[in-house]
Design brief:
alpha/beta; single chain; 9-stranded mixed sheet; 13 strands; two-stranded antiparallel sheet
């Protein structure tokens, strides 16, 4: 939705679901039998790449062929990219470990390659198996390309969002409806069976926690342990609270700056400066001479309200990038918008390469938007948030044209489980706050919720968390975990200048 214009470059755009989050017929996903064609799944040596291609790791790769629509098993098929990273031990554990990426729309092989270090201790004793969820990565990615000249949403309108969604849908076709969570868990269980594992140890992050929970619901007999990192409760549709959760996180960041003497002395009333910037961009886009951080080219361009949201919201996901926010907002207040503008463009570019927006829309328009109710929305609180109702309304507009797909019976109902579950949350998470983790832990029953102070979205790489993960997966006992090692984990100090924090 960012509206920097580069006529010669075509990029993937976030459409109405810019901020990651825009009676249905059901399938009973309880079969244990893999497709006969996949009983001897062939794997060969390969390398899987992380996001952006910056990391690569050795693996054994193959293809899993499944029906596009399980209701018509003799019809069209979809080929899913799968990988196995063998355990370091010669005698691997009977249960394999799997990672389910977020988004929705990210590829799990890319997520693993990017976060590989966090899982190396787990890999000492068990194989890691991966599947690019249908519609992502190398599994028939449901991705759309949009010319920047057509993606100027600085002055948001519902008609623009619907037109872009329709343009994407026209490219992909109606079959995009078969890319939902209910079908993805069937695929994962077929991979488990085809590779010969009785059970899985599952790590899910963000949207991946929804997939992990639904797999646990459908296949409890094949689930040994579950780790949910940045939890989406099964009974909470994503969308209505996006703006208020983002505001809560930003308030905590500003509060920490105010209580930090170096940050407060350097930037003063940073909240007021941000409010001024919001009001200024909402009035009209700001013209500036801008250096594209990707191409290095200099051009005259505009910085608008949606660009500001793109920069601020995604920077609040991590304490490392949140540490830059007061400095960048102060610079913008003094007339230097280039740091925020560059960050907005980088964020848009990264999202465009990481997420398959067609698959994203199929999930949201099946599993979230149909369950919105006005009774569950505090309109005044929503409109007082810095994002307003832009994300919420754009998701609704997208789903007026996007078809819904298969969803299992009871998909949104909380459920209890005997399987041990470890629930991880960050205090300053702008999209899945700690209250979500506590909520999921209560209905699951055999769960332990851990919240890390000052942290954002995704905890698995922080401090001693990889060691705790490996211990939990090895013992299947969350109650015995000694989490005192997390006490030393502090958020990154605020940048006072481009050089870094105060000495």
């Amino acid at each position: 939705m960012t509206h920097f214009r580069h006529p010669a470059r075509v990029v993937r755009r976030p459409l109405s679901a810019l901020f990651l989050l825009a009676t249905l017929w059901a399938l009973n996903a309880c079969t244990d039998d893999p497709l006969q064609a996949n009983e001897a799944l062939a794997l060969s040596e390969c390398r899987i790449e992380g996001f952006g291609g910056f990391t690569r790791t050795k693996a054994l790769c193959g293809e899993l062929i499944v029906p596009l629509d399980p209701a018509t098993p003799d019809g069209a098929t979809v080929t899913l990219f799968v990988a196995k990273v063998p355990a370091l031990s010669r005698a691997a554990a009977d249960s394999a470990f799997t990672i389910i990426a977020g988004g929705p729309g990210q590829a799990s092989t890319q997520a693993y390659a990017s976060l590989r270090g966090a899982f190396e201790r787990v890999r000492r004793e068990r194989d890691i198996i991966l599947i690019d969820q249908r519609g992502t990565g190398k599994s028939n990615a449901q991705a759309c390309e949009f010319d920047d000249t057509d993606a100027d949403l600085s002055n948001y309108s519902p008609a623009q969002v619907r037109a872009l969604a329709q343009q994407c849908l026209d490219t992909l076709g109606d079959d995009t409806r078969f890319y939902t969570t209910s079908l993805a868990v069937r695929d994962l269980d077929q991979l488990r069976a085809a590779l010969g594992y009785d059970t899985l140890d599952i790590y899910g992050v963000s949207y991946g926690t929804r997939v992990a929970q639904h797999y646990l619901r459908q296949y409890p007999q094949h689930t040994r342990t579950v780790v949910l990192d940045g939890v989406v409760p099964v009974d909470v549709p994503l969308g209505p609270a996006i703006a208020t959760d983002a505001q809560r996180a930003l308030d905590l960041i500003f509060s920490r700056c105010i209580n930090d003497s170096d940050c407060h002395v350097a930037f003063g009333d940073i909240e007021r400066k941000f409010t001024r910037l919001l009001e200024r961009t909402q009035t009209a886009p700001i013209a500036l001479e801008f250096v594209d951080p990707i191409s290095g080219e200099r051009s005259l361009d505009d910085f608008g309200y949606t660009d500001l949201l793109m920069a601020v919201r995604l920077m609040s996901y991590s304490p490392e990038t949140a540490a830059l926010l007061p400095y960048m907002i102060n610079e913008a207040d003094q007339g230097n918008l280039q740091p925020l503008a560059a960050q907005a463009l980088l964020n848009a570019e990264n999202l465009g390469t990481m997420l398959a927006y067609g698959m994203h829309n199929s999930v949201v328009c099946t599993e979230d938007v149909p369950f919105y109710t006005e009774e569950g929305i505090d309109r005044s609180t929503l409109m007082n948030a810095y994002m307003g109702d832009l994300s919420y309304q754009s998701l609704i507009e997208t789903c007026t044209v996007w078809p819904s797909g298969p969803i299992d019976d009871g998909f949104t109902k909380p459920f209890a489980s005997d399987v041990p579950v470890l629930v991880l949350s960050g205090e300053v998470d702008p999209v899945t706050p700690p209250a979500y983790g506590d909520r999921a832990a209560r209905y699951l029953g055999n769960a332990r919720a851990i919240t890390l102070p000052g942290q954002g979205h995704g905890q698995i790489q922080l401090g001693c968390m990889p060691t705790l993960l490996a211990t939990f997966v090895s013992t299947a006992d969350h109650a015995a975990l000694d989490i005192e090692c997390l006490d030393v984990q502090q958020p990154a100090p605020f940048f006072i200048s481009p050089s870094g924090s105060a000495p």
